[in-house]
């Protein structure tokens, strides 16, 4: 500043104009230094850093670069020049230093915020992130960062120690608890969800209370984001997963089997003992030949042992078409390539009712993918409905309009034929 004033004085500038011009020139010089510093950092230093990051074998530093941590950090260079130049202007030194320091604090907060985002992104590249997500903890760290940053900025502007402001916050603790109630509940819920391994990103959950039925795509401090099967998004409060019940399908996915539990209803009037002709036809069926042969030998031995009168089918033991059909389905499922062989496989009768005799298939597919599972289930029941008539059975079905019209036409035909014979 003295050098500038001496040079101006040599040119005949004096008085108020001398101070005004010297300050203006010094401001322009400092501004030029800031521009040069910014240019040097961004065009030279940053390029060197980017080149080093792009040409090494690590990937985590590329994520830091993508989050622009170094770009935000470069804004500190001009701020340092302004801060240490404040002494040149004694009258405005305190104001300039406070403004520069406030700017540096804000830049530091943005750098740390971007760094936390980078830490979360780096952590997501590991498989453990699906089991132990840390996004909720990152959000808590951000809240603490912004609170501390705001306190430091205010303390810098009013010229007080930040600890004095922090001590005064004790009186506002009740208000803060109310403001951050959801965040506190979310943090506690997040710790419990993570420690008990209750839900992970990628799990399929059902929560009827919130109309949620889909895959968990994100777990944050306050919410769990679920993409439903119809591609809609449901936001569930994190603490709701602790306070309310929900169903997690992860066990099914991990086990490698998805349950098939469906019944086919048999018309009970079609159930009968097997005739000789039916038995001969059943012995031609690949899945039944061994069963029928073994069963006939067992029945014959039992009836001879107990001296059963075979003139009536009611006496002794006999094969029934429903029993043979049940055995056929059992063998068919055991030999099906999409049925899990190491899990429960049952073909059982349930209590008969108004809709006939329910024959339930209880098995597990070896592919848990929804589309494949539905296709396997449909193929199995397509086959079952197609082979039922082979066993002399009928599927129960309530009368439809077509059935009523058919009966009406049959009754009219039976009425016309006798009249025509009489004529």
TrEMBL record:
A cellular component term, taken from the record's GO annotations: plasma membrane
Question: What sequence ranges are listed for the domain Mechanosensitive ion channel MscS C-terminal?
Answer: 329-388
Name all Mechanosensitive ion channel MscS domain ranges: 182-250
InterPro entries found in the cross-reference section: LSM_dom_sf, MS_channel_C, MscS_beta-dom_sf, MscS_channel_2nd, YbdG
Molecular function (Gene Ontology), one example: mechanosensitive monoatomic ion channel activity
Topology within the bilayer: Multi-pass membrane protein
Q: What is the annotated localization of this protein? A: Cell inner membrane
Q: Which UniProt keywords apply?
A: Cell inner membrane, Cell membrane, Membrane, Stress response, Transmembrane, Transmembrane helix
Output the Pfam families linked to this UniProt entry: MS_channel_2nd, MS_channel_3rd
Q: Which Gene3D superfamilies match?
A: 2.30.30.60
Q: Name one GO biological process term.
A: cellular response to osmotic stress
Taxonomic superkingdom:
Bacteria
**TM region(s), chain numbering:** 20-41, 76-95, 101-119, 140-158, 164-180
Q: What is its main location?
A: membrane
The family classification in the record reads: Belongs to the MscS (TC 1.A.23) family.
PANTHER family for this protein: MINICONDUCTANCE MECHANOSENSITIVE CHANNEL YBDG (PTHR30414)
This protein's name: Mechanosensing system component YbdG
